[in-house]
Amino acid sequence: MSFNIEREKGKKRVVIVGGGFGGLKLADKLSKSNFQVILIDKNNYHQFPPLIYQVASAGIEPSSISFPFRKIFGKKSHVNYRMAEARLIFPEKNILQTSIGKVEYDYLILAAGTTSNFFGNQNIEKEAIPMKTLQEAMGLRNALLGNFERSVTCATEQERRELLNIVIVGGGATGVEIAGALAEMKRYVLPKDYPDMNENLLQIYLIEAGSRLLSGMAPVSSQKSAEFLREMGINVWLDKKVLDYRDHKVILEDGTQIPTRTFIWVSGVRANAIGNMPSSSIGRGGRIKVNQYNKVDGFDNIFCIGDQCIMNGDKDYPYGHPQLAQVAIQQGSLLAENLIRLQKGKAMKPFHYRNLGSMATVGRNKAVAEFSSLKTQGWIAWFLWLVVHLRSILGVRNKINVLLNWMWSYMTYDHSLRLILYPRKAQEVIEREKREAETHWGEDEMQQNATDEKSQSK
């Protein structure tokens, strides 16, 4: 396997790792420039993370919030896409090692985002269900619906209790939104789909180690979101730290144990790592240190944007910018402009984050929203949340699908999609691909070592 992308004469090559909000904005703005752009992502689609929780709660289908990169750019675009995983950087040679081979670059932009942070607890990492990607959301949906089915046929009350207790760890926007979605499922869906189930047995716990939910928003928004959730029947526990998960029990620091087989972990993130990045360039949460131009510390032609980076020198955000879509989009947009300015011999512009506000939905007619001069809760915030997120989804078809699903759900008090699907590759195919990747990786390393030895001998 290889890239099979020849260098275009007279054009500098920009390699972008990650097709999230920041990487996609950067690639789009460079698509009509005098650069050769290569976009690398381990998936062949862009996903819309703010609505992943609705996939997990069987509200919408994965295809409604994802869009293939090859369809985004098309044959007329100057952006070349390759499905690959970035592994190592060889900065002295301007080479990026990926799962399908090496690629040379003039400018390398890291925009690979984050993954779930389990804070070193290997047992929780092994047992908990994260919710950062579409694959993980589908896994959670299958687990939820599968547990509901098993709960009506299980043999013991203890097992039924474990199947019908849902524990969510993390009181950020994702935790609040999935808790609200599950509360509405309990109220409107279970009585219809499972008439022989006592829906009161379904207990949903939202556990936060801090003193309030939505810590990135104002206290009034935190208080109102907690009130909304408690009104919906959610057990909101604050100042509670989860230590472990054993024998189908979530174990808290104060000794409390909650029996459950649905243990959802949305308590923090850490930046995706890449090999050969010096430790001096890594900051808090594994984020890569960058200056005000998003240039990685210690490198002249390597940049990092979005959730994967932490910017030094911004007095308004001494601990780094919030890991939000708007930060990534704004950084991607400015970096595209700065690369074009560099090409023309002009000075780059420093990044200054423009906070457009934040919001979180709790349920039907319930949300919190904050803008520069407005803080609102309830129906108005919920309507604003709908408009903002609907506008941000890629593709007209996807916008229509999501809108129709929302309208159907609002009018009928029902989600129309509740399928349990277990897509799997045959085990032998997985093992063969793994062997091929390891063999290819070894050959690349041997070739690189041989090249280095020849250079040293000369």
TrEMBL record:
Region named Disordered: 433-458
Keywords for the protein's UniProt record, in alphabetical order: FAD, Flavoprotein, NAD, Oxidoreductase, Transit peptide
FAD/NAD(P)-binding domain boundaries: 13-332
Presence of keyword Nucleotide-binding: no
UniProt-recorded Gene Ontology molecular function terms: oxidoreductase activity
Alphabetized InterPro entries for the sequence: FAD/NAD-bd_sf, FAD/NAD-binding_dom, NDH-2, NDH2-like_C
Composition bias type Basic and acidic residues, residue spans: 433-443
E.C. numbers: 1.6.5.9
External alternative NADH-ubiquinone oxidoreductase-like C-terminal domain: residues covered: 356-411
Catalytic activity: a quinone + NADH + H(+) = a quinol + NAD(+)
Domain of life of the source: Bacteria
Similarity field: Belongs to the NADH dehydrogenase family.
Name by which UniProt lists this protein: NADH:ubiquinone reductase (non-electrogenic)
Source lineage: Bacteria, Pseudomonadati, Bacteroidota, Bacteroidia, Bacteroidales
